[in-house]
Amino acid sequence: MTTLLVIAKAPVPGRAKTRLTPPYSPGQAALLAEAALADSLAAVADAPVRRRVLVLDGAPGRWLPRGFEVVAQCAGSLDVRLAAAFALCAGPAVLIGMDTPQVTPALLAPVLARDAWRACDAWFGPAVDGGFWALGFAVPEPELVRGVPMSRPDTGALQRKRLVDAGLTVRDLPVLRDVDTAQDALAVATEAPHTRFAKALARLPLGGGDAR
Questions:
Q1: I need a labelling partner for 195 at 20 to 30 A (CA). Which of 28, 155, 187, 204 fits?
Q2: Among 75, 71, 79, 102, which Cα is nearest to 3's?
């Protein structure tokens, strides 16, 4: 059975979704981060897997549903933390972040299908900003993540090339937009108006006072 991993930062004002500030206040950005995290966890909770792991920077809160193992993130750069997350798994594993609240069980279905790993070594979910929103291995290989430059327009291309250069057969998931900026937030909320994230955003005036 495939393990689903979510790597996330606890939605604390001043630490979560800081690129939303401005126009949103730190408290508002934290509320949006909590909603995005809750949407991401709900999608994983509804997926047909036995093992769900939250790799967390910070402390769990009311947003954490039942059925998740919680593991503290290690120290280090993002590539190091992603590699450490994959090292928690012995079998097929797929990792997503908290930046795509529009993710659904249907979007994750290809990596969880009965034939997901047939003639396939890795799954890759590209992001609009040039990064990636999902990464999966039939057999986790942390060394194929460690050392990839993160938070760059070519991060996704470099990560996928690392997989292909290692001889892995890679399948692709749909392109999704990460929520990093206010523009991203509006675009994702428009695309997925049913989400907690969209509803939280709708309650926040741009440039308003701290929501907490």
A1: 155
A2: 71
